[in-house]
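Might you be able to review the protein record set out just below?
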Amino acid sequence: MIERQIASLIPIPWAFVVKNLLNILSVSSARIPVPASSIAISTFPEPSIADLTRRIRFRSLTGSIASMALPSSGVKDVQVRFSFDPNVDLVLVDKIQVQQVLLNLLRNAIEAMHASDRRKLAISAQAAEPDMVLISVADSGSGIDAGLAARLFQPFVSSKQHGMGVGLSICRTIIEAHGGRIWFDPNPEGGTIFRLTLRAAAAEDDSDD
């Protein structure tokens, strides 16, 4: 079947993300149902944490992300600050997937500041218990509307005027598949802080970056 051939082109670590997106589409009464079986995604097993992860140095995840996010946003005069705990070194991740999550969060943060006089973006990482790394992306934008806050990670809910509302839902799927979680808090200085956790790897382990 042509559908099965198409499905075979999707790398297995990404298949569960595509399947999740198709399920999101199929259960939304506002969209035409798109059953996951139509492209045979259901033939792929959902990967285990072991399938997804490699020992990666945390700084290799973030090295080029900000430089990728800033030009594509069209927002100028953004002050970017990095703050990394020296105790944070290796994390257990699928590098490409987690970089996409971070890129999505950074782009959202930058776009949230387009109408702000202060445009400050802060990316930080610190050790957290037990054996986790806490990553924060803080902006100085207008913040999240109270009416959206409880539903922001649900499909087709977006704080953007022309947003599709699937990015954060997929981000949550990826992070939870890695054994972490993702949430947000109001920034005391104005704006929003998105936070996520990833599993830390033992310092003596060899990294794959």
The chain has two domains: 2-43, 50-199. Confidence is low (pLDDT under 50) at residues 1-16, 24-45.
